[in-house]
Amino acid sequence: MNHPFLPLLVMFAVASVIVVALLTVASLFGPKSTNAAKNDPFESGNPPTGDARIRFSVRFYLVAMLFLIFDLEVVFLYPWAIYFRHLGVFGLIQMGIFLVILTVGYVYVWKKGALEWD
Amino acid sequence: MSVSTAVFNLIALLLVVSAAMVAFSRNIIYSAFSLLGTFMGVAGIYIFLGADFVAAVQLLIYVGGILVLILFAVMLTHRITDVTITNRAAGRIPALIVVVGLVYMLIQTVRTTPWAAAKQVTFASTTATIGDAFLYDYLLPFELASLVLLAAMIGAVVLSRKEIKE
Known about the structure:
The complex is a heterodimer. By secondary structure, chain A is mostly helical. Chain A contains four helices and no strands. Chain A has one domain: Methane Monooxygenase Hydroxylase, Chain G, domain 1 (Up-down Bundle), CATH 1.20.58. Chain A is 69% helix and 0% strand. Chain B is 75% helix and 0% strand. In chain B, α1 runs antiparallel to α2 (28-48) and α2 packs antiparallel against α3 (52-76).
């Protein structure tokens, strides 16, 4: 059987094999030396301060959530954009409604100050 | 064994191994990172099925979005790394019984289901068909999806704002 995506899949498989193989070879044959300085967390060359396991600000989560929502919006745009010539004005209006509803949310987020990083 | 079977086996191996690492890892961060291999393997399976759009969405949303969200959730949770994840409510014997029953059920399902032999499917790009379905047959669900996204957006803001005020 000739799968049309076979070259892509072969590349995917070869890439996975190479990653696993290189990591295995490196951990088997690589030189191992540990000292206190090497095990320190890297903070751009400065001596590390405090614990690395701090609680991150919840704002990061909000940003990730907003990213995901607009990411999903883009996913809905793809099939529409590919089929756009056939859909014409009707498709433009439908996608316009879709985008306006999401823009309402964007304006709400903006006005609420959720994008401020004070 | 043809090339395509070999590649399928390799992707299945990646999928199962990383899924096992998600389940068995004692450190929740390792579990979260192992999920990457699982999501990639699922994307590979979608490509095998000729679902190019779903595979792209899998990469874009799950690998690019959900995984980041899960990692943030782990990092935001206070001292989650100190918790040893074991379930003491049920012992090993009841768990073994449940697992054996489940595996038996799955094997029986695989054996008794009359699997439809794969026809010679023509692999055309599915994206245009999906676009057509969105704008004609499933227009209302499509527009409702934007309302669901709006609700998620407002919900995220309301919840995290409350957290900041404390």
